[in-house]
From TrEMBL:
Gene3D superfamilies recorded: Ribosomal protein L33 (2.20.28.120)
Gene Ontology terms: biological process: translation
Leader sequence residues: none
Protein's recorded name: Large ribosomal subunit protein bL33c
Source taxon at top rank: Eukaryota
Stored SUPFAM superfamilies: Zn-binding ribosomal proteins
Family under the similarity heading: Belongs to the bacterial ribosomal protein bL33 family.
MF annotations from Gene Ontology: structural constituent of ribosome
Keywords: Ribonucleoprotein, Ribosomal protein
A GO CC annotation given for this chain: ribosome
Length: 52
């Protein structure tokens, strides 16, 4: 019997620093983008979801 695809999936998003979190595929089918502080650039940059 085949496994059903999970609704919540782990995502990896980064620019330089790697973050791992989860998202609900049904509520947010598009790629996430966060505006976070980058400790290497010393400014706020856009951190987007990367392809697995």
């Amino acid at each position: 019997m085949a496994k059903a695809k999970d609704v919540r999936v782990k995502i990896i998003w980064n620019v330089i620093v790697v973050y791992i979190t989860q998202k609900n595929r049904h509520n947010t089918p598009h790629r996430l983008e966060f505006r976070k502080f980058c400790p290497y650039c010393y400014k706020h940059t856009i951190h987007g979801e990367i392809k697995k």
